[in-house]
Amino acid sequence: MLKDFFIALSQNQFLNSSAKKYGLKLGAQSVVAGTNIPEVMKSIKELNSHGISCTVDNLGEFVFKKEEATAAKENILKVIEAINENKVDAHISLKPTQLGLDIDFDFALSNVKEVVDKASRYDMFVNIDMEDSSHLETTLNLLDKLSAEYDNVGTVLQSYFRNTQEYLEKYRNLRIRLVKGAYKEPEEIAYLDKKDIDENYIKLTEWHLLNGKFTSIATHDHRIINHIKEFVKKNDISKDKFEFQMLYGFRRELQLQLASEGYNFCTYVPFGNDWYGYFMRRLAERPQNLKIVGKQVFNKKTNTMIGMAAGAFLLGRASKKKKRK
Ligand code: FDA
Predict the structure, then answer these.
(1) Is residue 154 part of a domain?
(2) CB burial class (10 A; 0-12, 13-18, 19+) of residue 89?
(3) Ligand 1 atom 16, closest CA
């Protein structure tokens, strides 16, 4: 229920726009690397100093207006310039809906293409993040068009979907990030049981390590990481064929340890004032992350926000139950 609660919060547009006004709150500053480009560059330099590369996400959700998508694109272009000027080891991750996928496919395509094109001039990779199942096909259509023209683009595949192996085979020649999946999906298309999702994650990762171009193993799960370390050793898979990835602010000790053991390691570094949805999805994945929120939850403004959302969520559940009866 807690998971559903935080997913519902992540989808609440009112709370999203309210949160933007308050700056980094609720403890989000421990998992979001600042609100502007100079702040994120500082965080990247610090991670680079430990041999960790970064993938930068200019946070943004609920984009339904062309002006907003265009502004997001301009900001990402500035990030690419800043990565180049600061000579940091980093590339771009972007969400297609932020660049207009919910507005118009061709408009989104031209925005993402501009980003990929600019990045390609600096030999920089662009990862197209994967959102929920309603965007899967259109995101892959974007990828098909872009990867036909550019070789610095790849995407994310989620192990909670039952048919991900098909996509993995189709995109075996691209750099692929494998994740478990962060959205709420129906049982018909997705595994809901953690054991099934984990088993599929291992199966897909092993397959891609043996058959794919380059695998980004994006998980905080030490059991899976240890399993993969053994697997690559046993199968003599070279370290330059894969990397481990984790999110900024999570399991920092393990991030540093893997980098110091000589594995390629990449931290996903989100920044910006549109942190709310990202942060709520992190709480949905692991409510224990509330520990990092600590006392900061308990201030007046955020208490009101959370209180209102909890009320709306519980009312929603109650009325659903009533209807079912
Ligand atoms: P999971 O939450 O399954 O936890 C497994 C175990 O790991 C836990 O039981 C615990 O033992 C340990 N653990 C996990 N987190 C811990 C912590 N913070 N501290 C201590 N122990 C911890 N999703 C998506 O749908 N689209 C996308 O594009 C992306 N992109 C993305 C990039 C990167 C770099 C990452 C790491 C993740 C994503 N995700 C994503 C999110 C992903 O789908 C998934 O929801 C989360 O990574 C949570 O799953 P995990 O495999 O990390 O651990």
Answers:
(1) yes
(2) middle
(3) 220
Residue 228: what pLDDT?
98
Which domain does 256 fall in, by range?
32-274
Distance in Å, CA 245 to ligand 1 centroid:
10
Residue 65 CB neighbour total at 10 angstroms:
11
**What pLDDT was estimated at residue 324?**
39
We report the CATH number of the domain holding residue 59 as 3.20.20.220
How much distance in Å is there from the Cα of 148 to the middle of ligand 1? Answer: 30
Residue 306 lies in a domain: no
Decide whether any atom of ligand 1 lies within 6 Å of the 185 Cβ.
Answer: no
Using alpha carbons, select from 140, 148, 194, 147 the residue that is nearest to residue 164. Answer: 140
User: Which residues contact residue 181 at a Cβ distance below 8 angstroms, ignoring those fewer than 6 apart?
Assistant: 158, 159, 160, 161, 190, 197
Rounded Cα gap, residues 22 and 59, in angstroms? 15
Q: For 234-263, how does the pLDDT look when each residue is reduced to its tens digit (9 = 90+)? A: 999 999 999 999 999 999 999 999 999 999
Whether 225 lines ligand 1, by a CB cut-off of 6 Å, is: no
pLDDT single digits (tens) 70-89: 999 999 999 999 999 999 99
**For ligand 1, mutation pick of 221, 246, 248 (most atoms within 8 Å of CB):** 221
In a domain, 296, yes or no: no
- The total domain count for the chain is 1
The list of the chain residues with pLDDT below 70 reads 1, 15-27, 289-325
Measured over the CA atoms of residue 189, residue 195, residue 197 and residue 200, the dihedral's sign is negative
Q: How far is the CA of 61 from the CAs of 11, 134, 213, 252, in angstroms?
A: 9, 15, 30, 26
Q: What is the pLDDT of residue 307?
A: 56
Residue 319 counted as domain residue:
no
Give distance in angstroms: CA of 72 to centre of ligand 1: 26
Q: What is the pTM of this model?
A: 0.90
